[in-house]
Amino acid sequence: MTDKFTVSVLGTGIMGAAMARNLVKAGHTVRVWNRTRGKAEPLAADGALVTGTPAEAVRDADVVLTMLYDGPATLEVMREAAPALRAGAVWVQSTTAGLEGIADLAGFARDHGLVFYDAPVLGTREPAEAGALTVLAAGPNESRPVVRTVFDAVGSRTVWTGEDGGAGTATRLKLVANSWVLAVTNAAGEVLALSKVLGVDPQRFFEVIDGGPLDMGYLRAKTGLVLDGGLTPAAFAVRTAAKDARLIVEAGEGHGARLDVAAASAERFARAEAQGHGDEDMAAAYFASFPEEVRRGGDGK
C-alpha cells in the first residue's frame, strides 16, 4: 500500500493552512479550499492545488480533512462537496464541533459511505506550523494505516480514544482539555487586570511564583502577549475560543454538570469579541475586564 495519498483540506484558517503545508511537505497531493479564497491562495506557493469549490477539492480524494469553524459550518461545506465525494473515502474531521455537532457529522458520513474519523487537535499556530500537534482520534482500525500518514504529517503524537468516530470520544476529550486551556487563559488575563487596577507591577507576581508549582510556561506566554502587544497574528483567536467555551458549557449542562468557570469564560470571550478583539489571540480576553473607555487606554502594564 502506498503511503502517499490525495488529501483535500477544507478550511485554511490558522490551523488548516498549517496542516495543509505539512501534508505537502510529507509528499501527499494536497487540494485546498476555503470560503474566502484569498486565505487559501498562499498555499499554491507551497505546492497545494487551490480549488474554487468544496466539490472540486474532494473529487477522487483518498482523504478529506475538515478544519472549519464549527459543526454546522462543516456540515454545510460537506453538503456542498457531497456530489463529488467518493464512497469509501476517509473523512478526518478535525473541527471542534461539540457533541451534538459530531453526531450530525457522523450521520452525514454514514449516509454518504465515508469512513469517519473524529480527530480534533490540541495545539495552536506554532505547533501546527511545526507539525507538532497532538491529534485526538477515534475511528475504525481498518483505515488507520491511511489516517496515520495524515496524522504523522500534522502532529507529533496521536492519542486514540476509540474505534467509533461517531461516539465522539475524541471530541469529549478535546472539550475537557479545552476547558482547562480557556480557564487558564482567562485567569492569566485577570491577573494582569487586577495588577493594573491595584497598581501592582505584574513582574512582582511572576517573581513570587517563579520556579514553584504555580508557575507555568503557558501563563507567561499568554500574559506576555498582552504586555508586549503581541496579540496578532493570533495563535488561537478570541472568536474561536468563545465558540469552544459555549460548546463546553453545553456539554456540561447536557450531562448534568454546572460549569461556572467555563460559563464565565464564555461570557468574557464574547465580551472581548464584542469590543472588537475577535480576530486577536484569545489572551485579548484580558480587555473584557474593563469598560470600553478604559480598554482604549490600557495595555496591561
Number of strands: 9
> Spans with pLDDT under 50 lasting ≥5 residues?
293-298
Strand content: 5-15%
Gyration radius, in Å: 20 Å
Helix content: 40-55%
Class of secondary structure makeup: alpha/beta
Tell me, rounded to a whole number, the average pLDDT: 95
Largest sheet geometry? 6 strands, parallel
Roughly how many Å apart are the termini?
57 Å
Note the total helix count: 13
Helix and strand sequence: EHEHEHEHEHEEHEHEHHHHHH
CA-based shape: globular
Strand order within the widest beta sheet: 3-2-1-4-5-6
Overview of the structural elements:
With 301 residues, the protein is α/β, with parallel strands linked by helices. The chain is built from 13 helices and nine strands. The strands form two sheets. The chain has a six-stranded parallel sheet with strand order 3-2-1-4-5-6, with helices on both faces. A three-stranded mixed sheet has the order 7-8-9. Helix 5 links the parallel strand 5 and strand 6. Helix 8 crosses helix 10 and helix 8 crosses helix 12. The radius of gyration is 20 Å and the shape is globular. The N and C termini lie far apart (57 Å). About 2% of the residues have low confidence.
